[in-house]
Amino acid sequence: MKEFLSHFSAAVYWNIPYAETVFGFDPAESDTIDYTIFQRSALSRMKGCKIRLCQSPLPAGAAIARGGKIIASPELLFLQLASELDIHRLILLGLQLCSHPPGAPAAAITTKEKLSSFLARTSGHHSHKKAWRALKYIENGSASIMESIVYMFLTLPHLLGGYGLGGAAFNYEIRLEDEAGKRLRQKRCFMDLYYKAAKLAIEYESFAFHSRPSEQGKDAIRSAILDRHGIEVMHLNTIQLYDKTACKDFVLNLSSRLDKRIHIRTEKFDEMNDRLRSLLPRGNSLSD
To answer: In a 3-state reduction of DSSP, which class is residue 85?
Structure first.
């Protein structure tokens, strides 16, 4: 192997959900093709491409053959883009790489465990330390870009602009009793974010899906059923999330229910929180 498709071109191949929000642009619309090479001699036959030289050995499976091409694995892609993205976008990238529909973990591009195993074998590579830092804040199972961003707001430490309310799990499965299952026409439901110790669920409500009366009614029935299971549900809607003051009010209510106090002591919080806010999609993506 002398070269392989890498960086943003590999990201296009892996079809990362909502890549345009993750990166701040749509890499599929780029005219540039990214390759990584191991020998400088390859430069002469790769004109018109953006080339990076890799001088450190890579573990087996770091680049894989697909469709007649050699492509950076999702795990190598994460490490490579650590040098291209700021810490917030890198965390969001990791969350999207590990995302999948509720109850379908096999559909994820990769997992936190695979990322961790890969990084453990690639010390010495550029931006390795930054990738390890981002991995601390990545979890499996987000079902949407908005769930990923809400998770970041709630759980990231104050130094990164989050509110430090860790412990939430994505799309935690709740098995429904026979009667409740029949009323909702399903045997299980998934909480967008769930604090298991507190038995507290966070449900994100988008404009498009939850504005319909039928869905509002279904949400009310589900909340009542979960209440019977001893689970409290807090609803966070799009207007609250996009309004900085309303979002903070929601977080303060959440922290009270979690019996946690928020003491922000870092001077960087406002700057970092604004950077987090810059990730919020605009336009059509508001409905997701």
So the answer is: coil
Q: What is the C-alpha separation between 45 and 131, in angstroms, rounded?
A: 31
- Where do the domains of the chain lie? 3-135, 145-287
Report how far residue 219's alpha carbon sits from residue 238's, in angstroms, rounded to the nearest whole number.
Answer: 16
90: helix, coil or strand? helix
> Which two structure tokens, joined as six digits, stand for 49?
């491409």
Q: If we measure between CA atoms, which residue out of 47, 9, 48 comes closest to residue 29?
A: 9
The helix/strand/coil state of 208 is helix
Query: In the chain, which ranges are continuous DSSP H helix?
Result: 7-14, 19-23, 74-81, 87-97, 112-120, 128-135, 145-155, 178-184, 207-210, 213-228, 238-242, 244-257, 269-277
What confidence tens digit (pLDDT) does each residue in 39-95 have? 766 555 566 688 888 888 899 999 999 988 999 999 999 999 999 999 999 999 999
pLDDT band of residue 236 (cuts 50, 70, 90) is very high
Buried b (16+ CB within 10 A) or exposed e, 95-124: bbbbbbebeeeeebbbbbebbeebbeebee
